[in-house]
Amino acid sequence: MAININNNLLNPAGARSSESRDRQGDAIGTDSKEGQNSVAKPVTARTDSVNLSSEGKNLRQIEDKLSSQPEIDQDKVARIKKAIAEGSYQVDARKLADNLFAMEAQLNKL
C-alpha cells in the first residue's frame, strides 16, 4: 500500500473521514463502500438540441447570403480609381453633406 505524504488522509481525531476513504478508494481502484474492485459503469451520452423559430431561420439564411457577398464592390472601386486618375471624378458636396448628416442622425439614435 502506498502512502500519500502530500495529503493527510486522517481527520484531526485520527479517524479516516468518508471523503478521505472515497479519495483513497478512487486512488487504488476500489469501491470505498464495498472494498471490492470497482467496475466501470457505462455512461449514457446526452445530446443537446436547439430549435430555431422561423424568424431565426430567416435571419440565418440572410446571414449566409451576406457572408457570400464581397464586402467591397470592386467594380465601383475600379471606376472611381479610374475617374480620379483621369481627373474626371466630381464630388457632389450637397450629397456628401446629406449623407454625413444622415449618418450622424443614425449614430445619435444608438
From TrEMBL:
Task: Indicate yes or no for the key word Transcription regulation.
Answer: yes
Where in this chain does the record put each Anti-sigma-28 factor FlgM C-terminal domain?
48-100
For this UniProt record, the keywords arranged alphabetically read as follows: Bacterial flagellum biogenesis, Cell projection, Cilium, Flagellum, Repressor, Transcription, Transcription regulation
One GO biological process term is: negative regulation of DNA-templated transcription
Residue spans with biased composition (Low complexity)? 1-11
Query: Pfam families of this UniProt entry?
Result: FlgM
The record's InterPro entries line, in alphabetical order, gives: Anti-sigma-28_factor_FlgM_sf, FlgM, FlgM_C
Q: Where is this region: Disordered?
A: 1-58
| Record bears the keyword Nucleotide-binding | no
Polar residues compositional bias, start-end:
46-56
Query: Its family?
Result: Belongs to the FlgM family.
Question: What biological function has been recorded for the protein in this entry?
Answer: Responsible for the coupling of flagellin expression to flagellar assembly by preventing expression of the flagellin genes when a component of the middle class of proteins is defective. It negatively regulates flagellar genes by inhibiting the activity of FliA by directly binding to FliA.
The entry's protein name is Negative regulator of flagellin synthesis
Q: Which organism is it from?
A: Aestuariirhabdus litorea
Q: What is the name of the gene encoding this protein?
A: flgM
